[in-house]
Amino acid sequence: MITKILDGTTRLARCVTLARRLPGVPLFINTEALARCWTRTLDRVFHISERRVGAPGLQERRIEHVGRAPSRGGRLRSGGKSERSRLADDFFQLFTPAKEKPLKRLGACFRLAHRAKTTVLMRWLPAMHQLCGLAILLCLPLSALKAETHKSTDSLRPPSVPLVACDPYFSIWSPADKLSDADTVHWTGKPHRLTSLVRIDGKGFRLMGKEPANVPALPQTKLQIQPTRTICTFEGEGVRLSLTFMTAALPDDLMIYSRPITYVTWEATATTRRKHVVEVYFDASGEIAVNNGNQVATNWVALDRAVKMVSIGSVDQPVLAKRGDDLRIDWGQLWLAVPRSQTAITSVAETEGSWRDRFCAQGVPWAVLKALPGPKPASSLVAESCFGLGEASSEPVSGWLMLAYDDEYSIQYFKHNLRPYWRRNGDDAAALLQKAAAEYETLKARCEKFDNELVAALTKAGGRQYANLCALAYRQCYAANKVVADANGQPLMFPKENFSNGCIGTVDVIYPMAPQFLLFSPSLTKAMLVPILDYAASPRWRWPFAPHDLGTYPQANGQVYGGGERTEQNQMPVEETGNMLILLAALAQVEGNADFCANYWPILEKWTDYLKAKGFDPENQLCTDDFAGHLAHNVNLSAKAICGLGAYARLCEMRGEKAKAAESLGMAKGFATRWVKEADDGDHFRLAFDRTGSWSQKYNLVWDRILRLNLFPSSVLTKEMKFYEEKQNTYGLPLDVRKDYTKLDWTLWTATLTQKRSDFDALLGPVYRFLNETPNRVPMTDWFDTKTGKMVGFQARSVVGGVFLQMLYDKAVWKHWAGRDQTKAANWAPIPTAPKIVSVVPTSENKGITWRYTTESQSDGWFKPDFDASSWKEGPGGFGSRRTPGAVVRTRWTTDDIWLRREFEFPAGGTWKDLRLRIHHDEDAEVYVDGELVTKVSGYITDYEDMPIDAKTRALLTPGKHIFAVHCHQTTGGQYIDVGLVDVEPSK
Q1: Which among 304, 608, 915, 988 has the fewest CB atoms less than 10 Å away?
Q2: CA-to-CA distance for 61 and 75, rounded, in angstroms?
Q3: Which backbone phi and psi does 804 adopt, to 5 degrees?
Q4: Strand 891-892 relative to strand 879-880: parallel, antiparallel, unpaired?
């Protein structure tokens, strides 16, 4: 038998050596797959455990045979110098990770084979034969092996791990390979710390978070990311423990889908024959409930027959008062809830006085549900819970809790505050948590079924790497949107343009993310299109093309991008118009009718006329890739316009308008014929019609086949794909000839063009490698450098939902998933009527109001009522630079900072409905009234806005004279500042 082992391994080594010497023949060995195979073999044959015995450094390793050979265990003790000890060391050397020195494992393998005659291992020779062969493969020092590892493996190391992924404000990630290697953060990177500890047989370990630093981490051995779950596996002290974060993002039922709840579950199983006592601890920082950790927060507790609940929320509760990109929520409440069926202690505590350290030393304490008296800085508070799981054996024991966020009002929609969708029937946080607790087991089963079915379908459509990518993208896309209820209780969904510009309802964000929603839910697809369509149909939108956005998150009060509602400057006319027509046709295709379009048909006709006139050869304008700048004669944008005309033709066909369908389709085919001729550049097609030697990804062509338009010959796609595969870099295909950067979503669209699996894999592989190797540990970026693997910009955006596009090519698969939609949304309320704005203390919008101002740096007391500003200059507002969007500049200001003061008269006798601060700031500003800070805002806005004021400020505003004091800081671009007071009267 030993001879056979040695001969077999020698022959195998010779084959590998020969293969490496053949010219032009690359040798790729999937070391991770072989390691998994090796591990499975060992698991089938042996059961291994280890424990300390006696003096330091002496430990007992137990090898128990569980395979086909005689069922006899052997106990080997290391720490001495006996032959049996050396044998034990050699055997356990086989278990070293793949990254350890390979020759050590190879030598151990041969020594074991040589000694096998005289040891208990003789009984295991059949298994050893297999192990030695695998060891040889794993140990060979192939120079190219490391570089090719991620090309040949299906494992995914996500740049950041989604844990709580519910909406743009309730979105918490772990930016490390293991949960204990880093503190968890909000997707923006700000601290949103979650901590979990475990106690096994009285010994404490960290599972998640870097604190307490003196508590060792339990080794994390596995990470799985599923569409609705993230599962982390830990092992040590004779226990295998899984920690699962489950968000029931089940798109067939929007009442479940819209719940801002993540279930956290611990499950423990013994890996030895003895039982182990397991206890767990969890806490969530009050940082999650505020924009900045130093904001003051308070806390509450509640107890009912189903759950024990504690919550943390800001004292001020400025509901929907701020808008912008790098912001976190500071209204509503963070909730931690535990079912009463679990014996758990739950409380709010100061971080320094929490149960963390005492838990590791003492286990689960005896305590009552309690809150912490008095407001505190939010970062100093934690909502905590700890409980015992019981005795882990071969049968698992488990426990769970819920982490939730009730924002009460989620979106401001044309000055009306809308509730989250789950509140549409009047539920509050307590009712939600009670329902969620009662449905835990049911939802757990539903999520597991959904994940398994979807991953299987994705694997069939594009392979395991594709399935892993889509699972991660599903969580991220879901968490970058918010579903709310309109006045009729119907769903509206709003994406946030994360780390791009913070816009809400951006059409060229909806376009790339749409495949995820087209696939799973016609109701959600309509919910994201209705706000844009209603806005475009309103008198506010004056242009013949589609709008770009609805405002800045979370305020959907009208377009802010480019010229906004004022001018056509820096708009995306062909881009957004083509996007809307294509998406409406895709929705109609899966539903089998164009009924949804009936109310908006006049707009669609107007948009189609625009594409007929302007679409084929676009003027100098922006497209969705606006970071690349303006471009005239954009060939890819032209393809979108052509597909948009074809999409309109399909809609006309479904409505029975045959003549219009034939006319539009005929024009689209004519344009496509011209496109093929005029964009041709030999072995590919150009970036712009007038630029020879240029090229770009033609991702917009995907709709020609998905919508069955048949406008472009298949030879176009084949020629482009062949050219693309020659242009790829280490981490993917550049977006176009101008730069090395690319877009992840567009690359995955481009990969589908020919519908050949080899082409799809060729473009997918480098992108997958990028995810595994990028140094930027942030939620998946969609804009990165294809040579360095570094993020260029953007993160955590919903556009990654576009990776599901491959699934839309199969009509039966698409129909299967979309057909599960139970919501059947319809009968949306009309766009809200704008409230009436009454000036109380006027701004300088209509008439210049005199202020005192200075651009010289001021001392700390400049904002106090008794400050002497007589030496400051005087001038009419507003103050700023020319051509700042929405500005009414009467006094030019071009320095970095300006300080303003103005006395005003607050009128008597007014019955104010909703008194607000009216402000236009570009950029950071702070406003004081009578020396009290009213607001502090960052970033810029492009028009005057009305911001809520708190009760303290309202109490200051008694009839008589008062002082405004304002500081504005400029960093880049335009600049402007002006303030006043208004009363907002709700519309009837």
Answers
A1: 988
A2: 7
A3: -80, 0
A4: parallel
User: Residue 252: what pLDDT?
Assistant: 96
Distance (Å, whole) CA 261 – CA 170? 9
Report pLDDT for 731.
98
Residue 379 tokens, joined: 């970062």
Q: Which amino acid is at 739?
A: K
Q: Are 242 and 232 in contact (CB under 8 A)?
A: yes
Q: Which two tokens stand for residue 500?
A: 């791009």
- CA 776 vs CA 26, 176, 282, 469, 779: distances in Å: 30, 10, 28, 17, 9
Q: How many residues does the chain have?
A: 988
What phi and psi, each to the nearest 5 degrees, are found at residue 53?
A: -140, 120
Gap between the Cα atoms of 429 and 405, Å rounded: 8
- Dump pLDDT digits (tens) for 271-294: 999 999 999 999 999 999 999 999
Are the C-beta atoms of residues 221 and 233 closer than 8 Å to each other? yes
- Per DSSP, the three-state class of 145 is helix
Asked whether the beta carbons of 925 and 969 are under 8 A apart, the reply is yes
pLDDT at 303: 82
Give the angle subtended at the CA of 479 by the CAs of 478 and 484, to the nearest 5°.
Answer: 80
Q: Is there a contact between 790 and 778 (Cβ–Cβ < 8 Å)?
A: no
Spatial strand order in the sheet of 411-413: 416-418, 411-413, 555-556, 551-552, 503-504
Quote the pLDDT of residue 125.
Answer: 43
- Alpha helices (runs of H) in 281-378, residue ranges in sequence order: 356-362
Cα-trace Rg, the chain: 32
Sheet holding 850-854, edge to edge: 873-876, 850-854, 897-906, 960-969, 924-929, 932-937
DSSP bridge partners of 875: 851
Residue 6 pLDDT: 40
**Nearest-angstrom CA–CA distance, 927 and 915:** 16
Taking the C-alpha atoms of residue 195 and residue 281, their distance in angstroms, rounded to an integer, is 8
DSSP state of 25: -
Q: How many Å apart are CA 404 and CA 334, to the nearest integer?
A: 6
Q: Residue 257 has which token pair?
A: 């889908």
3-state percent breakdown (helix, strand, coil) of the chain, nearest 5: 35, 25, 40
User: Is this model's pTM higher than 0.90 or not?
Assistant: no
Residue 812's CB is within 10 A of a number of other CB atoms, namely: 6
Contact indicator for 26, 129 with CB cutoff of 8 Å: no
Q: What does the alpha-carbon distance between residue 572 and residue 584 come to, in Å, rounded to a whole number?
A: 18
Q: Which helix (H) or strand (E) holds 88?
A: helix 83-93
Q: What are phi and psi of 504, to 5 degrees?
A: -115, 140
Q: What is the pLDDT of residue 987?
A: 78
Are the CB atoms for 598 and 621 separated by under 8 Å? no
Neighbour-count burial of 12, counting CB atoms closer than 10 A to its CB (0-12 exposed, 13-18 middle, 19+ buried): middle
How far is the CA of 626 from the CAs of 362, 571, 629, 972, in angstroms?
A: 58, 10, 5, 18
Q: Which residues pair with 289 in a beta bridge?
A: none
Per residue in 831-874, pLDDT tens? 999 889 999 999 999 999 999 999 999 988 999 999 999 999 99
What's the token pair of residue 532? Answer: 């844009």
- Residue ranges, the chain, pLDDT below 50: 1-85, 87-88, 91-92, 94-103, 105, 113, 115-152
562: left (phi over 0), alpha (psi -120 to 50) or beta: left
Sequence-distant (≥ 6) Cβ neighbours of residue 536 within 8 angstroms? 546, 547, 600, 603
Give residue-wise pLDDT tens across range 304-348. 888 999 999 999 899 998 889 999 999 999 999 999 988 888 999
C-beta of residue 218 within 8 angstroms of C-beta of residue 209? no
What integer pLDDT is reported at residue 354 of this predicted model? 83
Torsion of CA 147, 151, 154, 155, to 10 degrees: 30
Between CA 73 and CA 889 the distance in angstroms is: 87
Structure tokens at 890: 């009467």
